[in-house]
Structure to design on (467 residues):
């Protein structure tokens, strides 16, 4: 399916509103107004927030970390698990006092949580001090909503999703200096039975390759050395588009850009991870030696109930193919424990995949019921306490695997991007093009540079020396 890229007139209109807000802010606050963006959830949200911050700066706000000092507070929310939602409600509650102290403060909620009608209604009813609630498809209209609210308009609730388009060229204020996010597609078509994402983020739609390439080149020019391509399922990039550029081809295009840098990507759905993609990773030396391949469950019966379109054997075959082609690669995965109908026997199959693949690290979750998904009405007879026990067993198994993995690093030399100052005085931290982090002696002048590090030991982390 072809989705239209919105013409720049949509953005121009919003930049017009931004200008008007700038004037209003000068009259209302006098001094430089401050905005705080609180982000919950995944990297896609972090990246979306960088665009919200870009728009806020365009309006004249300075971005601050602390809600208490802000004149505008926005919550970019996550709906993937109940726990994330509870945290957001707790944080929204804190703005009541802020508004009491400073009545001119504007509070907004956006992201996956607010896209759900029952949540938006709850915010409207129970949190009267929230001024703006906006869904995932209208975030580019933030200047318009602030303008309308500031000029005495009613509280705003805008959840429309019907025009599944991509608005390009929104100003961006990136959080990092050397590591950056680059969304290549939005939405999801997979409808895994436990997952709320397709309902709140809409259908899959890819950005034009030229737009991605232009943003990528600009990031390299601005000094970014480690760029992560984002999408719910990057492997299906370009599906249904006439340009014929799939994810493997896109990776080759970006790999050919001049300069020393690392290209990462997430997330890869195992069902769409092709041999062409594995060969591309093998051949493109600037592409990460890391595959995040969420398997969710090691039981083929549960995978079928989850609507994942692969079984245990196919997943293990994919890992075998990947290891043959890219033996140095790190593998990571997501696992859900306690999906409705899962038995201990099913769970043991998950444990056996963990022990067999030897993942570098895992993101593990206890199943969380999401209203509106097919799994929410499936029978679930295992108690939370029992699921908790299985979960602990899984963590223990992965801890053992991680310990075994350490030996493979000792004595080897890695090219790392020095991108963080260590807590230990006189030391720096660097990331390999896989998932490892190495601590080594050095000073801040190394920040943003690639250095060769030989790993010598392990002491609560890998320790090495510049060679
Ligand atoms: N699109 C990615 C994929 O398919 O791998 C993942 C996106 S999802 C936001 C991140 C992870 O959250 C999933 O891989 C899954 O393990 C977990 N997750 C999603 N829905 C969940 C639920 N209802 N309960 C527990 N974990 C869930
Ligand atoms: Fe959710 Fe599945 Fe889509 Fe990932 S692929 S976002 S888990 S529905």
């Amino acid at each position: 399916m072809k989705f239209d890229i919105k013409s720049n007139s949509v953005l121009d209109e919003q930049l017009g509103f931004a200008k008007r807000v700038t004037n209003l802010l000068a009259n209302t606050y006098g001094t430089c107004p401050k905005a705080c963006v609180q982000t919950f959830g995944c990297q896609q949200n972090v990246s979306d927030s960088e665009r919200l911050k870009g728009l806020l700066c365009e309006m004249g706000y300075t971005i601050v970390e602390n809600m208490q000092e802000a004149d505008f507070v926005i919550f970019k929310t996550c709906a993937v698990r109940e726990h994330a939602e509870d945290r957001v409600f707790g944080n929204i509650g804190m703005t009541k006092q802020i508004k009491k102290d400073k009545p001119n403060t504007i509070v907004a909620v956006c992201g996956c949580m607010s896209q759900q009608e029952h949540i938006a209604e709850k915010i409207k009813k129970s949190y009267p001090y929230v001024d703006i609630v906006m869904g995932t498809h209208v975030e580019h209209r933030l200047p318009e909503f602030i303008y309308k609210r500031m000029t005495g308009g009613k509280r705003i609730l805008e959840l429309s999703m019907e025009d599944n388009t991509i608005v390009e060229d929104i100003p961006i204020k990136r959080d990092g200096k050397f590591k950056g996010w680059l969304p290549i597609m939005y939405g999801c078509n997979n409808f895994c039975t436990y997952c709320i994402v397709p309902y709140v983020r809409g259908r899959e739609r890819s950005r034009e390759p030229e737009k991605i390439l232009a943003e990528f080149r600009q990031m390299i020019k601005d000094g970014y050395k480690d760029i992560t391509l984002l999408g719910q399922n990057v492997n299906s990039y370009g599906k249904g588009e006439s340009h014929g550029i799939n994810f493997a081809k896109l990776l080759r295009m970006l790999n050919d850009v001049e300069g020393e840098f690392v290209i990462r990507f997430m997330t890869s759905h195992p069902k769409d991870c092709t041999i062409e993609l594995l060969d591309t990773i093998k051949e493109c030396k600037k592409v990460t030696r890391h595959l995040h391949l969420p398997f969710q469950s090691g039981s083929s019966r549960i995978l079928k109930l989850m609507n994942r379109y692969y079984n245990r054997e196919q997943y293990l075959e994919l890992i075998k193919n990947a290891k043959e082609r890219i033996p140095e690669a790190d593998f990571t995965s997501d696992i859900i424990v306690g999906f409705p109908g899962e038995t201990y026997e099913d769970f043991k199959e998950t444990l056996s995949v963990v022990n067999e693949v030897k993942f570098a690290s895992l993101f593990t979750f206890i199943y969380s019921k999401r209203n509106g998904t097919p799994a929410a009405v499936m029978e679930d007879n295992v108690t939370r306490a029992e699921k908790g026990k299985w979960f602990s067993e899984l963590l223990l198994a992965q801890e053992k695997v991680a310990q075994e993995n350490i030996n493979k690093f000792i004595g080897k030399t890695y090219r790392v991007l020095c991108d963080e100052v260590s807590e230990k005085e006189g030391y720096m931290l660097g990331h390999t093009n896989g998932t490892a982090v190495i601590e080594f002696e050095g000073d801040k002048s190394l920040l943003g540079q690639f250095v060769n590090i030989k790993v010598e030991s392990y002491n609560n982390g890998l320790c090495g020396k510049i060679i």
In short: The first strand starts at residue 34 and ends at 39.
